[in-house]
Design goal:
581 residues, Nucleotidyltransferase, domain 5, two-stranded antiparallel sheet
Length: 581
């Protein structure tokens, strides 16, 4: 309803605050802008605030959009002015605003030209084209960078509350320059920070750690939760240096890179003395992979053979880069899809009469393609490595997966065990040398790459306390009863709270578990040892503990008072008895 002064009485749907004002006060209240004559809304969460700011940015963008009509053929001679929008001066600029009705502006449409130039430049920048080759003005790149920075401010507002992950990886561009990328990943999505040209630099642990330290200082050490790199030895040394500089920041090896290394250990076992057991059990996988590569190279390197293959195959053979994750599995799966085409190719008349290049190799390829046992081995490799490949593909996305990795790794090993034992037609209680080798490789990779954050995130996931998850498979236990998991979780807590005084100062000493500061069963727990898990509302949890403490103190005081009263009554009766005598 309308009030005096033309203002409107407004009620907030989040906090039910009633105030009088207009659009500006509603904006200040919801967007938490102080100093506008109205209090900020305490019920607007970070997600809601981010959504509101996006809507504000979209509204302002729509407001700035200008409809650009096509100019008439004789606009210059007739004096017709088309389009145009007022160009506002920048804050602090001494240049006066350009009058849109001025003769120069009408003749040249400078505002519309500037907007069109900006849109064209943005299209080329998005496609990765160099502005120097397209003769795009430098001011356009500066304006576009400022525009991108304004859009990224919405993501940066969540850093302080949710924390960030710094991701770093090295690569080589088309000019063979060694580059290191740095990205920041949050709940809102990944954000590219910068790429450093390391040409002429010795990339040791000190140099790489200095680059990561600069990024940490740029983001803010208090906002960084972990740093993720690959599993190279130099990166491991860098991670130890970063953890020494900032005790609350964890170095976490890339899970996808870890799984890819595990696949290489299984599918490309090295024939060395220290790897003898693995080579004995897995060399047949290497033999199958080598024959696949030989057949692929033979077909692609001979035009006549490639022509014969294309006559039968609906799909093409692909060349997989060695740097691609699970490259050997991708090639094996493609071969399985073109199996019929390969068989038709080696059985056709053209193949039998082809004698131009290495007839002996052509006969070897023909025997291999027509060998059913070889195809059975290829199918078996794809089958038992599918759990590894599926987890690799799941982790190689932008979706948060830290809280799922611990459980997924166990499920992956269990699925592989069932596949191997089913293929070998053995009971699960019997032994399998091949499974023992695969299990040792996977557990060794997990031991080298796991971080206390994996265990902490697993223990904080309510899914793993539910009856549905616990009853889905045998031998599953809730995280607070798992001794190994509890030890790793406590390592993570000690990094955040080095001393008991720090824990007490935070007021959250019992917010991480169910049975006090220990992961003990709830059987026989006293009242003070039980606290409800309200991880999303720590202040209410602290109040709950205070209430329990006061209640316990009152009970103790009542007990002491009752004992004192009994002693006083006993003493009084004894004195009365002595006086009577």
């Amino acid at each position: 309803m309308k009030e005096r002064g033309g203002n409107t009485k407004i009620k907030c749907n989040f906090c039910n605050l009633e105030f009088t004002g207009s659009y500006s006060r509603v904006k200040a209240h919801l967007l938490q802008i102080k100093g506008e004559g109205v209090s900020v809304c305490p019920r607007v969460t970070t997600d809601i605030l981010l959504q509101l700011r996006r809507e504000m940015a979209n509204a302002e963008e729509r407001k700035r959009q200008v409809v650009i009509p096509l100019p008439p053929l004789s606009y210059a001679s007739s004096g017709f002015a088309w389009g145009g929008a007022e160009m506002l001066p920048k804050q602090g600029s001494k240049r006066r605003a350009v009058d849109k009705n001025s003769p120069i502006n009408k003749a040249f449409n400078q505002e519309v030209r500037a907007q069109v130039d900006g849109e064209i430049a943005r299209a080329f920048y998005s496609g990765g084209y160099l502005s120097i080759l397209l003769e795009i003005p430098t001011t356009s790149s500066q304006k576009e960078r400022a525009h991108i920075e304004r859009l990224l401010e919405l993501i940066k507002t969540t850093w302080k509350e949710k924390g960030v992950t710094i991701v770093s990886d090295g690569w080589t561009d088309n000019q063979r320059r060694p580059l290191i990328n740095f990205m920041v990943v949050t709940e809102s999505g990944p954000m590219f920070l910068k790429a450093v040209n390391c040409e002429g630099e010795y990339k040791d642990k000190f140099y790489i750690s200095s680059l990561i330290k600069e990024v940490i200082m740029q983001v803010g050490p208090q906002n960084v939760v972990q740093v993720i790199t690959d599993n190279a030895p130099v990166c491991k040394a860098v991670g130890m240096l970063i953890e020494t500089m900032h005790s609350h920041i964890f170095w976490t090896p890339c899970v996808v890179h870890t799984l890819n290394l595990a696949l290489k250990n299984i599918c490309a076992a090295k024939n060395i003395e220290s790897n003898e057991d693995v080579y004995v059990e897995c060399h047949w996988i290497t033999d199958v992979g080598d024959k696949v590569l030989m057949i692929k190279n033979y077909i692609l390197n001979h035009n006549m053979v490639l022509t014969m293959f294309n006559q039968f195959a609906p799909l093409k053979l692909i060349s997989i880069a060695q740097t691609r994750f699970a490259s050997i599995l991708v090639m094996l799966k493609r071969f399985k899809l073109v199996k019929r085409a390969l068989e038709s190719m080696v059985l056709c008349n053209e193949w039998s009469t082809y004698r131009e290049c290495d007839p002996s190799k052509a006969q070897t390829i023909r025997r291999t393609v027509l060998d059913d046992l070889w195809w059975d081995k290829l199918d078996y490799i794809i089958e038992f490595t599918t759990p590894i490949y599926d987890m690799l593909r799941f982790a190689d996305t932008d979706r948060p997966s830290l809280h799922l990795i611990y459980d997924m790794w166990d499920d992956m090993i269990e699925k592989i065990k069932n596949i191997i034992y089913r293929h070998e037609e053995k009971e699960l209680t019997k032994g399998s040398e091949f499974y023992d080798v695969v299990y040792a490789i996977l557990t060794d990779r997990w031991t080298k790459s796991s971080s206390p954050l994996h265990f902490m995130a697993h223990s904080l996931n309510s899914r793993y306390y539910s009856d549905t998850w616990l009853s889905a498979a045998p031998n599953r236990t809730p995280p607070h009863l798992d001794i190994k998991l509890s030890e790793e979780r406590n390592k993570c807590l000690k990094r955040y709270f080095p001393s008991s005084e720090a824990i007490t100062a935070q007021g959250q000493s019992r917010l991480w578990d169910v049975g006090g500061d220990r992961f003990d069963p709830l059987d026989g727990a006293e009242e003070l040892e039980i606290s409800s898990l309200l991880l999303d509302e720590p202040e209410f949890e602290i109040l709950r503990e205070n209430e329990l403490f006061v209640k316990k103190e009152k009970c103790e005081f009542a007990k002491v008072s009752k004992r004192m009263k009994k002693c006083a009554d006993k003493k009084r009766r004894q004195l009365e008895f002595e006086e009577g005598d």
